[in-house]
Amino acid sequence: DAMVIQNPRYQVTQFGKPVTLSCSQTLNHNVMYWYQQKSSQAPKLLFHYYDKDFNNEADTPDNFQSRRPNTSFCFLDIRSPGLGDAAMYLCATSRELAGNPERFSRFFGPGTRLTVL
Amino acid sequence: AQKVTQAQTEISVVEKEDVTLDCVYETRDTTYYLFWYKQPPSGELVFLIRRNSFDEQNEISGRYSWNFQKSTSSFNFTITASQVVDSAVYFCALTGDSNYQLIWGAGTKLIIKP
């Protein structure tokens, strides 16, 4: 089945220790997103890639970076995690086709729950 | 500015009851898209439906149905004969025609008691 995969599902890191979360997809979608979701809140968009073009949200801290080496994979790097970065991180994909409403449907992975000690 | 309001923070019903989750939106875009997502305790966001602003037809999928009313800017979601597996947080979301930002409601936590 075509899907969005996130590894690991649970990640524990120490305060200030860099951590990388990974996302892969078999949907062949050209847009990939990273969201942060804190407890009892809606997801918050951090950034997205349209093919290789990186688009950062204005309020995304510099501590968060991303890489997309190819269509299938996308990584979220947190350079110096703070206690406030503990959250669920969700990867999502969509297929951008001009004029096609399907492009607005996002498909989410299962998420990685990050704990910062 | 765009906004999505889910006024019901939490709803608790007994299994087999029908339940409606409310969603009210604000947008100045003439073309926009509305969504419902389900988030069970496992955390994954499950896409349920996308509705285009130019299509006011209501939709039914099994026990799920959606009522889109442009006149009242509402996109309500009804679960018929609820089951324990329907317990989750449900999010309503909105996007315009030309951006990648989804505007999310605060979510409604639905608890189905056996």
Notes on the protein architecture:
With 117 residues, chain A is mostly beta strands. Chain A has no helices and 11 strands. The mean pLDDT of chain A is 92. Chain B is mainly beta and 114 residues long. Chain B is 0% helix and 54% strand. Chain B has no helices and 12 strands. Chain B has strands at 3-5, 10-14, 19-21, 24-26, 32-39, 46-52, 59-61, 64-69, 74-79, 88-96, 103-104, 108-113. In chain B, strands 2, 5, 6, 10, 11 and 12 form a 6-stranded mixed β-sheet that branches. Chain B starts with a strand and ends with a strand. The model of chain B has no long low-confidence stretch (mean pLDDT 92). The A-B interface holds A 31, 33, 40-43, 45, 48, 50, 55, 57, 88, 90, 92, 101, 104-111, 113 and B 33, 35, 37, 42-47, 50, 52, 91, 95, 100-102, 104-107.
Could you give a quick summary of the protein structure above?
The complex is a heterodimer of chains A (117) and B (114). Chain A is 0% helix and 50% strand.
How are the SSEs ordered, and which strands pair?
The complex is a heterodimer of chains A (about 120) and B (about 110).
Chain A: E1 4-7, E2 10-13, E3 19-25, E4 31-37, E5 44-50, E6 53-56, E7 64-67, E8 73-78, E9 87-94, E10 107-108, E11 112-116
Chain B: E1 3-5, E2 10-14, E3 19-21, E4 24-26, E5 32-39, E6 46-52, E7 59-61, E8 64-69, E9 74-79, E10 88-96, E11 103-104, E12 108-113
Parallel strand pairs in B: 2-12
Antiparallel strand pairs in B: 1-4, 3-9, 5-6, 5-10, 7-8, 8-9, 10-11, 10-12
How many helix segments of chain A?
0
General shape of chain B: globular
Helix content of chain A: under 10%
Overall SS class of chain A: mainly beta
Low-confidence stretches of chain A: none
First and last CA, distance of chain B: 41 Å
Biggest interface, CB < 8 A: A-B, 24 and 20 residues
**Main sheet characteristics of chain B:** 6 strands, mixed
Number of helices of chain B: 0
Q: How far is the N terminus from the C terminus of chain A?
A: 36 Å
Q: Over all CA atoms, what is the radius of gyration of chain B? A: 14 Å
